[in-house]
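All the exercises in this workshop are built on plain-text protein records. A learned vocabulary of local backbone shapes supplies the integers on the structure line. Once this layout is familiar, the rest of the handout is easier to follow. An example says more than a description, so a record of this kind follows:
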Amino acid sequence: MAALIRRIISTAKAPAAIGPYSQAVLVDRTMYISGQLGMDPASGQLVEGGVQAQTRQALVNMGEILKAAGCGYENVVKTTVLLADMNDFTTVNDVYKQFFNTNYPARAAYQVAALPRGGLVEIEAVAVLGPLSSAP
């Protein structure tokens, strides 16, 4: 069996990892994107404006990582949304659907006890590189 190649995906246009992990790891055509907080890549601080602004920034950060691997939001097949407060679910969805508007990825959403840096939302994803077509 041929060995699969693992490639680390990294971009300065998304926040640097705040621990011993990579922004994303690509194995064959599958990319695993680490959880993205609503952090400004330049300052390393959470953006102001509450869960709506943090969700938007987390998804923008994810988009930069996707671009670094040569793909986009349409390549995302699964996301996991971690919320500091499940009452923010609808607000997060309102922002989320601006980035994922057709052929929605599979998704799970959980309320957690706390997120790094006091974040209100964190979103991780799995994407598949290359052209994808939808079956009828």
